[in-house]
Amino acid sequence: MTTHLRQESCTNELDLSAEDPSTVKVLLQYLYQDDYTRGTDMTKLMLLEARLYALARYCNIEKLAKLVCVNFNTHIQKDRPKAIFPEVVKAIYNSTPASDRSLRDVVVDLSISHHAEIFTSQMMEGVDSFGLDCFKKLRYENKKVHDWAIGFVCLKCSGKWFTAPLYEFCPFCKAGSKDHCEED
Q1: Which residues are within 8 A (CB) of 164 and not within 5 positions of it... i.e. 6 or more apart?
Q2: Domain spans of the chain?
């Protein structure tokens, strides 16, 4: 990404050919109108906003990134789209670096506060760092481990942790659930 930005600073060109055309269209709309059309389909909107946020950060348009973050937080808190939530989480985690906590913290906070509604094993598939972020948040904020969490001990490395029953692998040595872990 930094190579592209260095190239842009030398040539005054920014290559967006690899980006989703609908996201680029919304970016251009923002550049001309200082706002973007949100639409009414929450599924499409939240996925669009996840991609738009990443594109705004990539293009170094901080005002747009902040606007998208505020709008995304409002939409996801209001609608809590459990059917597409895993898709939204994957879009965020696959398009932002671990150091960029803006949208990541929104979905982690929502997952913890509404775990019974939206927490599924699908949210963990392919985005291991999302599960780790959820449980780090619980630990670092000294929150009570919820009744849905189960204590485990790793038979391989003796590590102990709490996790949802659908996500049973050792966070220390990554040993699989059935072979190396048992309830504590």
Answers
A1: 115, 119, 148, 149, 150
A2: 2-143, 145-184
